[in-house]
Design brief:
Elements lengths: L15 E5 L6 E5 L4 E6 L2 H32 L14 H4 L4 H4 L5 H12 L7
Antiparallel strand pairs: 1-2, 2-3
Length: 125
């Protein structure tokens, strides 16, 4: 992006910038911080509409982030919190034996499963 692509008489600085796209009759929407091209439109009104929608989305995101911070601050009890640490290793989070894993199934389902694992035809319908 060259400096000639963004003229000095563009819209006031905000998060987004609308300017002519190079030497064409098109208009472009740039991200103001790093002059990144976001959209190219034929009319300036189209670029400004996109900018308005993006700014509205940014406003909603900022409001939601502030609301989340308020909820976190309200939900955090004062003082130290004593919690049990979550298991960090994979082996601590899984069941160790096959009997524990098959505890929710009927006897027939267990037999069919173990027969399929062994390659046997016993237990198959």
């Amino acid at each position: 992006m060259s400096a000639s692509a963004t003229p000095a008489n563009s819209t006031p600085p905000g998060r987004y910038n609308v300017a002519h796209y190079g030497k064409s009759r098109n208009f472009a929407l740039y991200l103001y911080e790093n002059n990144k091209l976001l959209a190219v439109t034929l009319y300036k009104k189209g670029a400004e509409t996109i900018r308005g929608e993006l700014e509205a989305g940014d406003t909603v995101i900022a409001e939601q982030a502030a609301r989340i911070e308020q909820l976190i601050a309200a939900a955090t009890p004062p003082g130290p919190v004593h919690t049990t640490p979550a298991p960090t290793r994979f082996r601590e989070r899984i069941r160790h034996s096959q009997a524990e894993q098959l505890g929710f199934f009927s006897r027939e389902q267990k037999e069919r499963f173990t027969a399929e694992r062994r390659g046997s035809s016993r237990g198959r319908s």
